[in-house]
Amino acid sequence: MIVSLAELLILGLIVDWAFRKLTVPGLVGMLFLGVLFGPHALGLVNPELLAASGDFRLIALIVILLRAGLELSKDTLNRVGGRVLVLAVIPAVVEGVAIMALGPSLLGLSLMESAILGSVLAAVSPAVVVPLMIRFMEQGKGAEKGIPTMVLAASSLDDVFVIVVYSVLIGIYTGASVGIAWQLVGIPISILLGIVVGLVIGVGLFKVFQKFDPRATKRV
Question: Is the dihedral angle over the CA atoms 182, 185, 187, 190 positive or is it negative?
């Protein structure tokens, strides 16, 4: 499995470099490589690596969100806080409602299935947004208006909001024993619990980073 992982990493770096030379985002090349080598195409990936892919995806997401959190500025967040909430919720709601309305006529799905599809497609991809916004910060683009910080924070909140909505819709669709009313009440409860847990962990990490250089995690 380690050899297969090393081969994929090396090939991914090569493809990323090649696509950048063609003025195409390197992520497109990595996605193409993953699809080509995946089980539904050439099937060249080690089965053990495929079995552990969920853990690797989780680790990658943690690293991406950790980098995003370390790049956020408290002063900038205080200045654009209201706009962050609007940017996190309104686009996701509009996209989800639009897909829910168009799904039955265009795709032949039920209204609930269309709503579930909308909650999936409305999610923001941190793997795309976070590196781009960090690059903008390093280049000073939009720094005066706090645009990169606003987008970073909004993308994280957007994912949390969409995941909660998706979980509720799946629970209703599969006929979970919990009633619809409780499922709907669970949305703000889940968000509030997430905020509380995040604050506790954030305060703890803040105390730790007062003693250690936070940039060390970025370099790693």
Answer: negative
**pLDDT tens digits for range 136-173:** 877 877 777 778 778 877 887 787 788 778 877 887 77
> What is the longest distance spanned by two Cα atoms in the chain?
58
Mean pLDDT of 197-206: 82
Helix, strand, coil percentages (3-state) for the chain, rounded to 5, are 80, 0, 20
Query: 32-41 pLDDT, tens per residue?
Result: 888 887 777 7
DSSP conformational letter for 150: H
Q: Which two tokens stand for residue 98?
A: 């639009």
pLDDT score of 178 more than 60: no
Please give the backbone phi and psi of residue 138, each rounded to the nearest 5 degrees, phi first.
-65, -30
| Cα–Cα distance, 30 to 16 (Å, whole number) | 6
Say yes or no to pLDDT of 219 above 60: no
Q: Which letter, b or e, does each residue of 138-155 get, where b requires 16 or more Cβ atoms within 10 Å of its Cβ?
A: eeeeeeeebbbbbbbbbb
Cβ(127)–Cβ(96) below 8 Å: no
Which two tokens mark 63? 């690293």
φ, ψ at 126 (rounded to 5°)? -60, -30
- Distance between CA atoms of 134 and 148, rounded to whole angstroms? 7
pTM: 0.63
CA distance 162 to 150: 18
**List of residues 6+ apart from 101 with CB closer than 8 A:** 114
Instruction: Tell me how far apart the alpha carbons of residues 96 and 100 are, in angstroms, rounded to a whole number.
Output: 6
